[in-house]
Amino acid sequence: MKKINKKSLKYGSYAIAATVVVIAIIVFLNAILGLDMVRNRLRFDITKNKMYSLSDTSIEMLNKLDKNIEIIILTEEKNFRYTEILEVLKQYNLKSGGKVTTRFVDVEKDPTFIQRELDPDQVKGIDSGSIVVKSGSKNKVVSQSDMIEYDYSSGTPQASGLKIEQAFTSAIKSVTADKTPVIYFSKGHGEIVLDQQLSDLKATITSNNYEVKELSLVNAIPEDASVIVFASPKTDLQPKELENLMGYLENGGDAMFLMDVQKTKDELPNFDHVYERYSLSLNNDYVLEGDQNWYYNDFNIIIPQPNDNEITTNLDPQSLFLYMPNCRSVNIDQAKKDWITTKPLFMTSEKSQSQD
């Protein structure tokens, strides 16, 4: 009969006991990690760019939230295949202490939900499959393009990465802002009709949580005006309108002038006075681009190049696909004014020509 080695038995018992303990720990961890609450909190992000982790900036913003945010996904939950988005949204819920929640709504079963809860005027383009960030009466659509980074180096846009966090953090900031900025479009000078030719632009502006209104400059300019847009006026400002506009601009107001090529030789001296004040002059001409790298299909469809300054510093000319057909030229007057700095944002090439 073979003698049993007590020492071997002793160590063998230890090994068996250790194995039992390890198995017990694994069973315990599996049980604990099976709980949604724990699994969501105890997680390791091993993706290359920490795609499923929120940045310190987003976490700080969420810690300061004093409003509830609802992220509404307009589809059945079982049909939503974008697990990357859901993983990030879980972190918004956790880091906000539950102030940010996610809800699925099947609009096929509730066809009036969008008009009833999100877009009464039906101008935001919200549809089945949309993702909407909502706080109170304010909401913002987060589109697929908002969450994808594109690479334009090949000449056509190619998806190169995800920016899910940036899209949702921006949307949350937008819907929780205390004030809704208002963009006023001037009327009374033959401008393009906002609700007709510019309906798509209005929808885009509105979906980014700006309020859009029309304005007659005969009246005082409201204090909530963020910017006044002149969309291709055909007739000149009246004296009272000029006075109101100049008062607004002199007090730090902003304006955008979209001036089409004029079909007549009629001058607009009051508009010219506004430009002159800011060292600009608008030519009544028609610009043709002579460099084939700077126009698209025809000489008048210009691909403008961003001028090098602090506003355009992050724009890449190789990936900027901005077409501007039928352009007029603008001069920057040489006379310097101490209180203003005038810089071009976009320019044509040296081969461009001006025709009367």
What does this 3D model show about the protein?
With 356 residues, the protein is α/β, with parallel strands linked by helices. It has helices spanning 6-33, 36-41, 56-63, 83-95, 113-118, 164-176, 199-207, 239-250, 269-277, and strands at 69-73, 100-104, 131-135, 138-142, 148-151, 158-162, 182-186, 211-215, 225-231, 255-258, 280-282, 286-288, 301-302, 305-306, 324-325, 330-332, 346-347, 353-355. The strands form 7 sheets. It has a 4-stranded mixed beta sheet, covered by helices on one side. The chain has a 4-stranded parallel beta sheet with strand order 8-7-9-10. It has a two-stranded antiparallel ribbon with strand order 5-6. The radius of gyration is 30 Å and the shape is elongated. The model is unreliable at 36-48 (pLDDT under 50).
Q: Which strand order do you get reading across the main beta sheet?
A: 2-1-3-4
Uncertain residue ranges = 36-48
Helix content: 25-40%
What is the tally of beta strands? 18
Distance between the termini: 117 Å
Portion of residues in beta strands equals 15-25%
Count of separate DSSP helical elements: 9
Task: Describe the sheet with the most strands.
Answer: 4 strands, mixed
3D shape: elongated
